[in-house]
UniProtKB/TrEMBL annotation, chain A:
InterPro entries: Beta-prop_COPA/B_2nd, Coatomer_alpha_WD-assoc_reg, Coatomer_asu, Coatomer_asu_C, Coatomer_complex_subunit, Haem_d1_sf, TPR_COPA_B, WD40/YVTN_repeat-like_dom_sf. One of its GO terms (biological process) is endoplasmic reticulum to Golgi vesicle-mediated transport. The lineage of its organism: Eukaryota, Viridiplantae, Streptophyta, Embryophyta, Tracheophyta. It comes from the Eukaryota. It comes from Hibiscus trionum (Flower of an hour). This is Coatomer subunit alpha. Residues 340-583 form the COPA/B second beta-propeller domain. Oligomeric complex that consists of at least the alpha, beta, beta', gamma, delta, epsilon and zeta subunits. GO terms for cellular component: COPI vesicle coat; Golgi membrane. The coatomer is a cytosolic protein complex that binds to dilysine motifs and reversibly associates with Golgi non-clathrin-coated vesicles, which further mediate biosynthetic protein transport from the ER, via the Golgi up to the trans Golgi network. Coatomer complex is required for budding from Golgi membranes, and is essential for the retrograde Golgi-to-ER transport of dilysine-tagged proteins. WD repeats lie at residues 47-88, 89-130, 131-164, 200-241, 244-285. It is a peripheral membrane protein. Residues 814-1216 form the Coatomer alpha subunit C-terminal domain.
From TrEMBL, chain B:
It is found in: Cytoplasmic vesicle, COPI-coated vesicle membrane; Golgi apparatus membrane. Oligomeric complex that consists of at least the alpha, beta, beta', gamma, delta, epsilon and zeta subunits. Signal peptide: none annotated. This is Coatomer subunit epsilon. The coatomer is a cytosolic protein complex that binds to dilysine motifs and reversibly associates with Golgi non-clathrin-coated vesicles, which further mediate biosynthetic protein transport from the ER, via the Golgi up to the trans Golgi network. The coatomer complex is required for budding from Golgi membranes, and is essential for the retrograde Golgi-to-ER transport of dilysine-tagged proteins.
Length: 1216, 290
C-alpha cells in the first residue's frame, strides 16, 4: 500500500472522490464534512450544518454539487463553489446511512435506518420513490453504474437488488410527475415504481455493504458475520458464488477494483484486505494499530482508493504506477504488462521485445521497479520486489523485432541491480552491505563492501556506483574502493544523469538536488508536491515533472514552470522542445513545450548574447516576469528591448545607463521629475549636452548657469544673464554676472536693486572710477569705507579644462549588444570569482579525506596485503612478498628457472600467409619478396621489378598495424587481415590486408581518362602505367572480378601504347611522313569515344596539312561516323571531306593502310597487319614485331616479350 | 578486501593506459607508506622513461635508492644508450643472479622488458614466467604474443582474470590478445578500448587501440579519424604515426609525410626498421630472381 495522504480527525464515516480535481470529501462522526486537496495536503473547506454524525457523502459527476446524509434524518445538497447548502431533502424517519447521485438522471438514492431506500429528484427536490422491503436498518444503497438497478444491504441479513426501470419511464413524462408524486405517497408502503428483483440471502448476520461490479453481473457484500460474499446474477436469478473469509470482525465496506481483478474490503478488525477476485484468495492485508475501518471509496478515474477509520482517513494506491524504464541514446526500454518493450525516439515506434516473467504469486507491487540496460551487450536487468527483491537478466536477441519465446532469465536475489560496465552489473546485498559484481553469466566476479549503509544503488558512470542511504548519497568507485563524492540529501528516489555524465539530478519526494559528478552541490529546488521524473535536455537544462507541472531548472538555480499537467507523466527524454514521456498506463507520449523562456534565460546565463538578441527579435517574449527577471539578474539593458511602457523603459534605461534611450523616453514622458533624474544620470556620466538639455527642460536656471560656468560656455552664460533679467530674478542676474566676471553688470544690478553702497564698493574695488564717483555722489555721506591695505582683485571664472561638448564619458554599458567587450571583461571577472569558490569547496573536501586517511592508513594497508595474498592463492608466490634480506630466494629462483619450459616460438602470421597463398601480392605483403617475384615471373613473365618496388614496400608496410602494449616494452606488430567479418573465428588466419584494391584502380582509370581528355598526355601516361604496374599485385575475390582485371589490363595497355605513340609523334618535328603515320596509328588504339574523336581530329589535321588529302578524308569520314558532339569538329571534318573530294590524292606515301586491319608494334610503332608474324608481351599482351622477342616490353615495362607465362593469378578463386 | 582505498590506483591506471604526463602530474599523493612511495616513484620514473626522458631518470636515481628504482634506472640506461647495451644487459644479469635482490618483481619486470628488446624471449620468460604481479603477467602475455604463441598468452590471461578480471591490465592484455588472435575477437578488443574511452579521458593509447581494431575490421576511414584525433593530442607519438602510415596506405593516400615524421621522431621504430630492411630484401630478391 502506498499512502498518498492521511488526515487526523474524528471518525470518518463517509468518503467521496471528486471526478476531476484532486479532492476528497470526508464526512465525520462529529457532523463536519471536510473537503481536502489530497495532492497538496490541504483542507480546502468544511461544511458544518448537520446535527450529529454524517454517514453518507457523494460528489456529483459533473456539477459543482455534493450530497450528504446524516443522523439528523436530513439529506443536504451542497454547492461547493458557493460554499453553502442549497437545500435539504426531508422524508426519512431515522438515521441516513448512505447517499449517492445517479450518474445520469437527477436522482439521489439514500438508505436509512427507517428500513427504506428512497430515490429523490434533486431538481424538483422531491422524493420520487420509496423502496420498502427490508425489515431492519438499510446500511447501504447504490445505483448500478449502467443498468436500472439498485443494490442495498441491510441488517436483516439480506442483500436486495431493486429494479428501478419503471422510475425512468415515469421521468420520461415529467408532466405528470406531480400527479405521480401524490399517487406515490399514497402507496408509500408497497410502492409500484421500484420492485425487488432479487433477495440475496446467505449472510448469517446483518449485512453492512453491498456493491455492484463495474462491468460484470457480480455483487460483493460484507457483513457482521465477518465474511465477504460474492454473488452472481442473470436476468432471472441471482446466486451466491463464493465466500471470502479472513476478517476477524464485522466487515464494514467492500468493493470491486475498477481496473484490476481484485476486491478490496475493510473491517472493524482494523484491517484492509485485498482479495484476488478470480482465485478468491487473500492477497494482502494492511493493518492499523488502533483504528477500526468504516468506509472505502474508489476514485472514479485514477488508481486511488481512500479508507475512513476511527481517527481520520487515508488516501492510498495499491500499486506503483511508474513504469520501469531505461534510456540509451535513441532508445527507450520499458516494462509494460508482461513484456519488455522498446521505443525508438527518432521514429517514435515501439516494439515488443521479450516476454518477462510473470510473478508466480500475483501479489501486488511485484511488477518491475527499475530497469538497467547495457547497449553493447544488448542486455536488460529488471529489478522487482518479488520475493523481497529480485533481479532478472534478459539478453535481447539480435533480431529483436517480433515476438520471441519466453527465455529463462538469469535471476537472483538483490534489492537493486544495475549495469556498471558493458558486461558487469552490480547487485546490492543489503544484509551484508556489499555489492556483488557479476558478469553476464550471472557469476560473481567480485565482491565489494560499501562505505555507507546502502539501501539502493544507482548508476554513476562506468565502474562507479551511487549508493543511497536514508540521508545521504555517495559515489563509490568500485575499482579503487574510494568514495568519490558524498552529499547529505533527503531520501533520494531517482537519479538522472545528464547526457555528458557531468551533472546529476537527485530526485527525492519533494526536492531536486543538482550536483556535478563528484556530488559537489550546485543547487537545490524544493517542491510542495511530489516530484515525479526528469530528464536533461541538450543544453544542460533539467526538465522535470511534479504531479501537475512540467518545470525547468537552469544550472544557476533558476527554475520555473513550463506548463501544467492533467495527469502525472514520467519524462524519458527531452529533445529540443519535445518531451518524450511515459504515462501511467505505460504509453509513450510526446509533448511539445515552449522552450523559449528557459532557453532565453540559459543564453543569458551562458552570455550567449547573440542568441539572446535573435530570440528577442524573433519571438514574442514579453511580460513583466521576464522584465523583472532581467532586472533582477542585472540585465536591465536587455529588458529595455522588451518594454513598451515609457516609464519602465526610462527607469531601465537609467539603470543600464543608456542615456540615448532615457532621453527618448524622457521626451515622451516629459515631466519634471524624469528630466531631473535624467539630468542627474547624465551628469554622472559626464554627458554635458544631455545635462544641459535636461536642465533646460526643467527650467532649472541656477544649475544651468553653474553648468555653463563649469563648461566655460560664456555665451550661454550671458544669455542666462539676460534670461534672469527678463525674469526679474535679481539674484540669478547677480550670480551670472559674477560667473561672467562682468563687473559693470554687477554694479548695474546692485544699483538697480538699490544696494548702492554695495554697488559703490564693487565699482571702486574694481577700479571703475567714474561709476564709483557717480555712485558716491548719489550716496552722498553714506559712502562706505573700504578696508585699507587690501589689494582687491577681480574674481574671474576659471578657464575650464574642457570647453564645450561632453566631458570624457563615464564608461557605461551601452547594452550588451554593442558593448560586447565590456561584458566580456565583466563576465571574466565573474567567472574568476566562481572559480575561486570551486577551489574552496575542493580544498575542504581534501581536508576531509586526509582526516580519514590519517586514522586508518595502516589498517587499510594491512588489509590490502592480506587481500592480495588471498587472491593469489594457489600461485605459490609468497616468497615474492618477502623482503630481500630473507635467505630463501636462491632456492626459489632456481625453482623459477627450472619450472620454466619456454615454449618454442609460434609461426609468424606472415609465414602462414606465404604458405597458404600463391598470389604474389600476399607474398609481398608477408615480406617474402623473392617468392613474390618468382611467382610474378612464372605467371606473367615479369623480369623487371624496378617499377614494382614501391608497391612491394607499401604492401609490406601496410600489412601490419602497431600496438603499444606494455610501457617501454617493444611495440607489438599485428598482422592485418583482409576480408574481416564479425563471424570470423579467432586464431584462424585470413590472408593479409592489401593496400591496393580494384576500386582504387578504377579511380585511377577515371583520372587517366580525364588527363587524356585534357591533353595532359604525360600525366595520363603515368596514370595508365601506374595501373599496369599495380595490377600484378591486385587481389580480387570473384572470377568475374578477375575478368574485369584482365579487361583493365587491355584498356590500360591500349592507352599506354597510344599515348606513347602520340608523345613520340610530338617529339618528331622534322619528319612529317612519320608524324602522319604515328597520328594514324594512334587512331587505331582502342580508345574511349571522345578520345578517339580527338585522335581522329588530330590525325586528320596532320594529314590535311601535309596535303595527304585522301588519308585526311578517311579520318574525316571516321570522325563523322562517331557523330561528334562538338559542332566545330564535324564542321571541320566536312570541310576536309569537301576539299578531299576535289583532289583525292596523297602528297606523300604513308606506311598506313586503313583498309587492312592491323595492330601497332609496341616498340617500333609499325603496323603489324593481320597474318604477319608477331610476338606479344605475356603480361600486357602488347604485340611486337618478331625481332623484339626477348626484349623488355616497352609498354608495361615489366615483362619480357615472348616469355613463357602461366597467366595472371589475382584471385584465390582461381586456385580453388 | 572491502573498503580499502587504493591510493596508487589512479596513478597506476594512468601509467598503464599511457597517460604518462597525467601520471607524473598527479603523483603527489600524501600519506603513502614506504612501500607505496617506492612503487609510486617507480611508476613516475617509468612514466618519464616512457616519455623518453631517460637522462632525468638516470640523474635523479642515485645509488642509495631502493632496488626497484635501481632497476628502473637500468632500464633508462638501456634505452638511452643503444650503442652500449651489452654492459647494461650484463649488469642486469649480474643483479638477477644476486639472491638478495634477484627476486624483486620490478627488477624481473625490467629484465623481461630488456630481454624483449633484445628479442631474447627465452631469457625474458625466465624472469617473468613465474608472475607475481599483474604487470609481470601482462608482460608475459605480451611476450607470448610476440612469440606468436597465443595459446600460452591466453593461459596467462586466464590467470590474470582469476586474480582480477576488471583490472586495467587484465582488460588491456585481453585486448592485446584479442587483436593478436583476430577474427571475431577484434570486436571484443574494440569494446574493451571503447570501455576505456568511456571511463577515462581519451589518450593516444586508447585512440590507437581503437584505430588498430578498426583497421583490423577493415574500417580504415574510421581508423583514420581516430588516428588524426590521436595525432592532435600528440603529434610525435610513434605508434600514431606508424598506424597513420599503414592507414593512409590502405586508403590510397600519401603516407610519406607520416613516414618521414616517424623517421625523425623515432628512427628505431619497428615500422621504419621493417621498411628499410624491406628495401634491402627487395634488392636481394631482384638479384636472386634475375
Amino acid at each position: 500500500m502506498l499512502t498518498k495522504f492521511e488526515t487526523k480527525s474524528n471518525r470518518v464515516k463517509g468518503l467521496s472522490f471528486h471526478t476531476k480535481r484532486p479532492w476528497i470529501l470526508a464526512s465525520l462522526h462529529s457532523g463536519v464534512i471536510q473537503l481536502w486537496d489530497y495532492r497538496m495536503g490541504t483542507l480546502i473547506d468544511r461544511f458544518d450544518e448537520h446535527d450529529g454524525p454524517v454517514r453518507g457523502v457523494h460528489f456529483h459527476m459533473s456539477q459543482p454539487l455534493f450530497v450528504s446524509g446524516g443522523d439528523d434524518y436530513k439529506i443536504k445538497v451542497w454547492n461547493y463553489k458557493l460554499h453553502r447548502c442549497l437545500f435539504t431533502l426531508l422524508g426519512h424517519l431515522d438515521y441516513i446511512r448512505t447517499v449517492q447521485f445517479h450518474h445520469e438522471h437527477p436522482w439521489i438514492v439514500s438508505a436509512s435506518d427507517d428500513q427504506t431506500i428512497r430515490v429523490w429528484n434533486w431538481q424538483s427536490r422531491t422524493c420520487i420513490s420509496v423502496l420498502t422491503g427490508h425489515n431492519h436498518y438499510v446500511m447501504c444503497a447504490s445505483f448500478h453504474p449502467k443498468e436500472d438497478l439498485v443494490v442495498s444491504a441491510s441488517l436483516d441479513q439480506t442483500v436486495r437488488v431493486w429494479d428501478i426501470g419503471s422510475l425512468k419511464k415515469k421521468v420520461a413524462s415529467p408532466a405528470d410527475d406531480i400527479l405521480r408524486l401524490s399517487q406515490m405517497n399514497t402507496d408509500l408502503f408497497g410502492g409500484v415504481d421500484a420492485v425487488v428483483k432479487y433477495v440475496l440471502e446467505g449472510h448469517d448476520r446483518g449485512v453492512n455493504w453491498a456493491a455492484f461490479h463495474p462491468t460484470l453481473p457480480l455483487i460483493v457484500s460484507g457483513a457482521d458475520d465477518r465474511q465477504v460474499k460474492l454473488w452472481r446474477m442473470n436476468d432471472t436469478k441471482a446466486w451466491e458464488v463464493d465466500t471470502l473469509r479472513g476478517h476477524m470482525n464485522n466487515v464494514s465496506c467492500v468493493m470491486f477494483h475498477a481496473k484490476q481483478d481484485i476486491i478490496v474490503s475493510n473491517s472493524e478488525d482494523k484491517s484492509i484486505r485485498v482479495w484476488d477476485a478470480t482465485k478468491r484468495t487473500g492477497l494482502q492485508t494492511f493493518r492499523r494499530e488502533h483504528d477500526r475501518f468504516w468506509i472505502l471509496a474508489a476514485h472514479p478515474e485514477i488508481n486511488l482508493l481512500a479508507a475512513g477509520h476511527d481517527s481520520g482517513m487515508i488516501v492510498f494506491k495499491l500499486e506503483r504506477e511508474r513504469p520501469a524504464f531505461a534510456v540509451s541514446g535513441d532508445s527507450l526500454f520499458y516494462a509494460k504488462d508482461r513484456f519488455l518493450r522498446y521505443y525508438d525516439f527518432s521514429t517514435q515506434r515501439e516494439t515488443q521485445i521479450v516476454p518477462i516473467r510473470r510473478p508466480g504469486s500475483t501479489g501486488l507491487n511485484q511488477s518491475p521497479r527499475t530497469l538497467s540496460y547495457s547497449p553493447s551487450e544488448n542486455a536488460v536487468l529488471i529489478c522487482s520486489d518479488v520475493d523481497g527483491g529480485t533481479y532478472e537478466l534478459y539478453m535481447i536477441p539480435k533480431d529483436s523485432i517480433g515476438r520471441s519465446d519466453l527465455q529463462e532469465a538469469r535471476r537472483g536475489p538483490g534489492n537493486s541491480a544495475i549495469f556498471v560496465a558493458r558486461n558487469r552489473f552490480a547487485v546490492l546485498d543489503k544484509s551484508n552491505n556489499q555489492v556483488l559484481i557479476k558478469n553476464l553469466k550471472n557469476e560473481v566476479v567480485k565482491k565489494s563492501g560499501l562505505p555507507v549503509p546502502t539501501d539502493a544503488i544507482f548508476y554513476a558512470g562506468t565502474g562507479n556506483l551511487l549508493c543511497r542511504s536514508d540521508d545521504r548519497v555517495v559515489v563509490f568507485d568500485l575499482q579503487q574502493r574510494l568514495v568519490i563524492g558524498d552529499l547529505q540529501t533527503p531520501f533520494v528516489k531517482y537519479v538522472v544523469w545528464s547526457n555528458d555524465m557531468e551533472s546529476v539530478a537527485l530526485l527525492s519526494k519533494h526536492s531536486i538536488i543538482i550536483t556535478n559528478k563528484k556530488l559537489v552541490h550546485q543547487c537545490t529546488f524544493h517542491e510542495t508536491i511530489r516530484v515525479k521524473s526528469g530528464a536533461w535536455d541538450e543544453n544542460g537544462v533539467f526538465i522535470y515533472t511534479t504531479l501537475n507541472h512540467i518545470k525547468y531548472c537552469l544550472p544557476n538555480g533558476d527554475s520555473g514552470i513550463i506548463r501544467t499537467l492533467d495527469d502525472p507523466i514520467y519524462i524519458t527524454k527531452v529533445s529540443g522542445n519535445t518531451i518524450f514521456c511515459l504515462d501511467r498506463d505505460g504509453k509513450n507520449k510526446t509533448l511539445v513545450i515552449d522552450a523559449t523562456e528557459y532557453i532565453f534565460k540559459l543564453s543569458l546565463l551562458r552570455k550567449r548574447y547573440d542568441h539572446v538578441m535573435s530570440m528577442i527579435r524573433n519571438s514574442q517574449l514579453c511580460g513583466d516576469a521576464v522584465i523583472a527577471y532581467l532586472q533582477q539578474k542585472g540585465f536591465p539593458e536587455v529588458a529595455l528591448h522588451f518594454v513598451k511602457d515609457e516609464k519602465t523603459r526610462f527607469n531601465l534605461a537609467l539603470e543600464s545607463g543608456n542615456i540615448q534611450i532615457a532621453v527618448a523616453s524622457a521626451k515622451e514622458i516629459d515631466d519634471k521629475d524624469h528630466w531631473y533624474r535624467l539630468g542627474v544620470e547624465a551628469l554622472r556620466q559626464g554627458n554635458a549636452g544631455i545635462v544641459e538639455y535636461a536642465y533646460q527642460k526643467t527650467k532649472n536656471f541656477e544649475r544651468l548657469s553653474f553648468l555653463y560656468l563649469i563648461n566655460g560656455n560664456l555665451d550661454k552664460l550671458s544669455k542666462m544673464l539676460k534670461i534672469a533679467e527678463v525674469k526679474n530674478d535679481v539674484m540669478g542676474q547677480f550670480h551670472n554676472a559674477l560667473y561672467l566676471g562682468d563687473v559693470q553688470e554687477r554694479v548695474k544690478i546692485l544699483e538697480n536693486a538699490g544696494h548702492l553702497p554695495l554697488a559703490y564698493a564693487t565699482a571702486s574695488v574694481h577700479g571703475l572710477q567714474d561709476v564709483a564717483e557717480r555712485l558716491a555722489a548719489e550716496l552722498g555721506d553714506d559712502v562706505p569705507l573700504l578696508p585699507e591695505g587690501k589689494k582687491p582683485s577681480l574674481l574671474m571664472p576659471p578657464a575650464p579644462v574642457m570647453c564645450g561638448g561632453d566631458w570624457p564619458l563615464l564608461r557605461v554599458m551601452k547594452g550588451i549588444f554593442d558593448g560586447g567587450f565590456d561584458n566580456i571583461g565583466r563576465g571574466a571577472a565573474d567567472e574568476e570569482e566562481e572559480g575561486a569558490d570551486g577551489d574552496w569547496g575542493e580544498d575542504l573536501d581534501m581536508v576531509d579525506v586526509d582526516g580519514l586517511q590519517n586514522g586508518d592508513v595502516t589498517a587499510i594497508l594491512e588489509d590490502g596485503e592480506v587481500g592480495e595474498e588471498n587472491e593469489e592463492g594457489g600461485w605459490d608466490l609468497e616468497d615474492l612478498e618477502l623482503p630481500p634480506e630473507v635467505e630463501t630466494p636462491r632456492v626459489s629462483s632456481n625453482a623459477r628457472s627450472s619450472v620454466l619450459v619456454a615454449p618454442t616460438p609460434g609461426m609468424p602470421v606472415s609465414q602462414i600467409w606465404t604458405q597458404r597463398s600463391s598470389l604474389a601480392a600476399d607474398h609481398a605483403a608477408a615480406g617474402n619478396f623473392d617468392t613474390a617475384m618468382r611467382l610474378l615471373s612464372r605467371q606473367l613473365g615479369i623480369r623487371n621489378f624496378g617499377p614494382l618496388k614501391s608497391m612491394f614496400l607499401d604492401l609490406y608496410s601496410g600489412s601490419h598495424s602497431y600496438l603499444r602494449a606494455f610501457a617501454s616494452a617493444p611495440v607489438v606488430a599485428l598482422a592485418v587481415e583482409r576480408g574481416w567479418s564479425e563471424s570470423a573465428s579467432p586464431n584462424v588466419r585470413g590472408p593479409p590486408a592489401l593496400v591496393f584494391n580494384f576500386a582504387q584502380l578504377d579511380e585511377k582509370l577515371k583520372a587517366g581518362y580525364k588527363a587524356t581528355t585534357a591533353g595532359k598526355f604525360t600525366e595520363a601516361l603515368r596514370l595508365f602505367l601506374g595501373i599496369l604496374h599495380t595490377i600484378p599485385l591486385i587481389v580480387v575475390e570473384s572470377r568475374r572480378e578477375v575478368d574485369e582485371v584482365k579487361e583493365l589490363i587491355i584498356i590500360a595497355k591500349e592507352y599506354v601504347l597510344g599515348l606513347q605513340i602520340e608523345l613520340k609523334r610530338r617529339e618528331l618535328k622534322d619528319n612529317p611522313v612519320r608524324q602522319q603515320e604515328l597520328a594514324a596509328y594512334f587512331t587505331h588504339c582502342n580508345l574511349q569515344l571522345p578520345h578517339l574523336r580527338l585522335a581522329l581530329l588530330n590525325a586528320m589535321t596532320v594529314c590535311y596539312k601535309a596535303r595527304n588529302l585522301a588519308t585526311a578524308a578517311n579520318f574525316a569520314r571516321r570522325l563523322l561516323e562517331t557523330n561528334p558532339t562538338n559542332e566545330s569538329h564535324s564542321k571541320t571534318a566536312r570541310q576536309v571531306l569537301q576539299a578531299a573530294e576535289r583532289n583525292m590524292t596523297d602528297a606523300s606515301q604513308l606506311n598506313y593502310d586503313f583498309r587492312n586491319p592491323f595492330v601497332t608494334c609496341g616498340a617500333t610503332y609499325v603496323p603489324i597487319y593481320r597474318g604477319q608474324k608477331d610476338v606479344s608481351c605475356p603480361y600486357c599482351t602488347t604485340r611486337f614485331v618478331p625481332t623484339q622477342e626477348g626484349q623488355l616490353c616497352t609498354v608495361c615495362d615489366l615483362a619480357v616479350i615472348g616469355a613463357d607465362a602461366s597467366g595472371l593469378l589475382c584471385s584465390p578463386s582461381q586456385t580453388r | 578486501m572491502a573498503g580499502n582505498p587504493d591510493h596508487l590506483f589512479s596513478l597506476r591506471n594512468n601509467f598503464y593506459l599511457g597517460s604518462y604526463q597525467v601520471a607524473i602530474n598527479n603523483s603527489d599523493i600524501p600519506h603513502l607508506s614506504a612501500d607505496d612511495a617506492v612503487e609510486r616513484d617507480c611508476l613516475v620514473y617509468r612514466s618519464y622513461i616512457a616519455l623518453g626522458s631517460y637522462q632525468l631518470v638516470i640523474s635523479e636515481i642515485d645509488s642509495s635508492a631502493a632496488t626497484p628504482l635501481q632497476a628502473v634506472k637500468l632500464l633508462a640506461l638501456y634505452l638511452s644508450n643503444p650503442q652500449d647495451k651489452e654492459s647494461t644487459v650484463s649488469s642486469l644479469k649480474e643483479w638477477l643472479a644476486d639472491p638478495a635482490i634477484g627476486n624483486n618483481a620490478i627488477l624481473r619486470l625490467i629484465a623481461g622488458t630488456v630481454f624483449m628488446h633484445e628479442e631474447d624471449y627465452n631469457e625474458a620468460l625466465k624472469q617473468t614466467n613465474a608472475g607475481g604481479t599483474m604487470e609481470l603477467h601482462a608482460l608475459n602475455v605480451q611476450i607470448f604474443i610476440k612469440m606468436h604463441r597465443s595459446d600460452y598468452a591466453e593461459r596467462q590471461l586466464r590467470v590474470m582474470q582469476q586474480i582480477d578480471e576488471d583490472h586495467t591490465l587484465t582488460q588491456l592484455a585481453n585486448a592485446w590478445l584479442n587483436l593478436a588472435v583476430g577474427g571475431s575477437k577484434i570486436q571484443e578488443a574494440y569494446l574493451i578500448f571503447q570501455d576505456f574511452s568511456e571511463k577515462y579521458p581519451m589518450n593516444g593509447l586508447i585512440l590507437n587501440g581503437k584505430a588498430v581494431c578498426c583497421m583490423h575490421m577493415g574500417n580504415f576511414d574510421e581508423a583514420e579519424t581516430l588516428l588524426l584525433d590521436a595525432l592532435n593530442k600528440d603529434a610525435k607519438d610513434p605508434e600514431t604515426l606508424a598506424n597513420l602510415v599503414v592507414c593512409s596506405l590502405h586508403l590510397g593516400k600519401s603516407s610519406s609525410r607520416y613516414l618521414s615524421q616517424l623517421k625523425l621522431t623515432q628512427p628505431e621504430h619497428i615500422l621504419v626498421k621493417r621498411a628499410s630492411s624491406a628495401e634491402g630484401s627487395f634488392e636481394r630478391a631482384v638479384q636472386s630472381v634475375a
